[in-house]
Amino acid sequence: MLELWGLFVSAFISSTIAPGGSEAVLAYMVAEELHPVMLMVAVATIGNTLGALTTWWLGSLAAKKYPAEELLDSKKQKSLRWVQRWGVWSLLFSWLPIVGDGLCFAGGWLKLPLFISTLLIAIGKLARYLFVAYWFV
Fold this sequence. Notes:
With 137 residues, this protein is mainly α. It has one domain (2-135). The protein is 74% helix and 0% strand. The chain has helices at 2-14, 22-31, 37-65, 68-71, 74-86, 99-109, 114-135. Helix 2 runs antiparallel to helix 3, helix 3 packs antiparallel against helix 7 and helix 5 packs across helix 6 (99-109). It starts with a helix and ends with a helix.
């Protein structure tokens, strides 16, 4: 059971501003057959989604106080423009390294609807973890 908590924490941290390696943790756990694959995928997906929602929430808080031009570097401004153009659907790509955090932050900044944002973030993250898990089965 402790391994699942470790996976959850790794997935959560990997989806915030801090770097992490939840895919490697999941791959190891799947290869070692520590728990049922779908349970591990679910734990990683939930942790990673909650981490992304933390970033979304930080974006929402930052938007109340600072204009985008003051707070965001050029890469994050690019994410903001991407989300402005594609809307909530851009959050399907929140699983991407580097770019994904910016998309979640921008989603919060732009006050995208929380329910659909959560759903699309979770779908993208689930797809990534399913791919990783079944690659190492």
